Amino acid sequence: MVPITLYTKSTCPFSRKAKQLLDEKGARYEEIAIDLDPSKRDEMIAASGGNTTVPQIFIAGRYIGGSDELQRLEDTGQLEALLERSGAQPSL
C-alpha cells in the first residue's frame, strides 16, 4: 500500500469517518492530530493549499481533500486502485 497521511482533530466526526473508511480498506496511515500538536496546523494549511478544516488527506503524496472527497473516491470505485498504486490519478 502507498503512504497515507491524515491531518485530523480527535473530536471531529469527519476525521473519524475518514479513518473508519481507511480502516475498513485495511489501509495503514499516519495520523497527525492538529489539536494534540498545534504546530502541525500550519503544516497542514500549507500542504493543502490553504484549507483549514479537517481532515485533510494525502495519498501517495497527492492531496485528496477531506472526508467527502475520500468517500467520493470510494463511491466511484477509484479508492482501491489509488491505495494499491501511487500512479493512479483520481478524478475528483
From TrEMBL:
<dbReference type="InterPro" id="IPR014025">
    <property type="entry name" value="Glutaredoxin_subgr"/>
</dbReference>
<dbReference type="InterPro" id="IPR036249">
    <property type="entry name" value="Thioredoxin-like_sf"/>
</dbReference>
<comment type="function">
    <text>Has a glutathione-disulfide oxidoreductase activity in the presence of NADPH and glutathione reductase. Reduces low molecular weight disulfides and proteins.</text>
</comment>
<dbReference type="GO" id="GO:0034599">
    <property type="term" value="P:cellular response to oxidative stress"/>
</dbReference>
<dbReference type="GO" id="GO:0045454">
    <property type="term" value="P:cell redox homeostasis"/>
</dbReference>
<dbReference type="InterPro" id="IPR004045">
    <property type="entry name" value="Glutathione_S-Trfase_N"/>
</dbReference>
<dbReference type="InterPro" id="IPR002109">
    <property type="entry name" value="Glutaredoxin"/>
</dbReference>
<protein>
    <recommendedName>
        <fullName>Glutaredoxin</fullName>
    </recommendedName>
</protein>
<keyword id="KW-0249">Electron transport</keyword>
<comment type="similarity">
    <text>Belongs to the glutaredoxin family.</text>
</comment>
<feature type="domain" description="GST N-terminal">
    <location>
        <begin position="2"/>
        <end position="92"/>
    </location>
</feature>
<keyword id="KW-0676">Redox-active center</keyword>
<dbReference type="GO" id="GO:0015038">
    <property type="term" value="F:glutathione disulfide oxidoreductase activity"/>
</dbReference>
<keyword id="KW-0813">Transport</keyword>
<dbReference type="InterPro" id="IPR011900">
    <property type="entry name" value="GRX_bact"/>
</dbReference>
<dbReference type="Pfam" id="PF00462">
    <property type="entry name" value="Glutaredoxin"/>
</dbReference>
<dbReference type="GO" id="GO:0005737">
    <property type="term" value="C:cytoplasm"/>
</dbReference>
<keyword id="KW-0963">Cytoplasm</keyword>
